[in-house]
Amino acid sequence: MKNSFIIVGFFVLGILAGLYNLLPKTLIETDFSVYALYILMFLVGIGIGSDKKTWEIIKSAKLKIILVPLTIIVGTSLGVTVVSFFTTIGLRESLAVGAGFGYYSLSSILITKISGEALGVIALISNISREIITLLATPLFIKYFGKLAPIASGGATSMDTTLPIITKFVGKEYAVISVFSGVVLSILVPFLVTFILKF
Amino acid sequence: MFIVLTLMTVGIIFGFLLQNKVGVIKFADPSINIAIYSLLFLLGVSVGTNKIIVSNLSTLGVQALLLTFGAVIGSVVLTYFVYKIFFKVKE
Description:
heterodimer, A: mainly alpha, 11 helices, globular, B: mainly alpha, flat
């Protein structure tokens, strides 16, 4: 949660700096963000690859557990498709925002690069809200939709930021499923977002 | 964008091979944070300098929330069926 505040803080600072022209022109005209993005993606890869727990959990996964992230992908896409008829955002763009699965930092940056700032902002707000809703509504979700519900709602965040609250309410036996689902979705975010917007 | 995906894949392979080199891994985490902070700052800057986006920020926010509700409800309801069929222990 603390990290979300810091990230939103940097975003808001950027907006203010842009609004009041506080930055030198060269910074705005030179697109440093492309290189920062390249470095980021490489480092994210290293982070995933070097985490022993990731490989152990993926290796130990039973067929049944693989159903969880798959269902979350399908369910998210269905829900977003329905909603897209009530907004001015196109179906493809809506699906891409949904494919952030709560991984707001990475998805909003990628979507900005491919589709521009407007959709990037939507992705940022939408995916942060997904994390916040999960943090707030986990007990409610479990009561009406069973123990997998907060894992579904948490999406990619169910491996880290929303894991404590999920484990607290569904118990330790579901913690492995939660981490597994979160890891799989996190790895898939950049691939799904890119493929949805490019094809 | 394929550069991005390639870089990430190469990173995963690198990370896997360097699993026991603690120094590299310790270096990756804070660097990820710095990269994310600066990228979101820059996203903020390009939003702040874009008048069309600034004047439509509330509309964008509402649409974003609608998408979130769709995503959350869709995934929660669908996993409920998977839960009932495959996971729930019968009493």
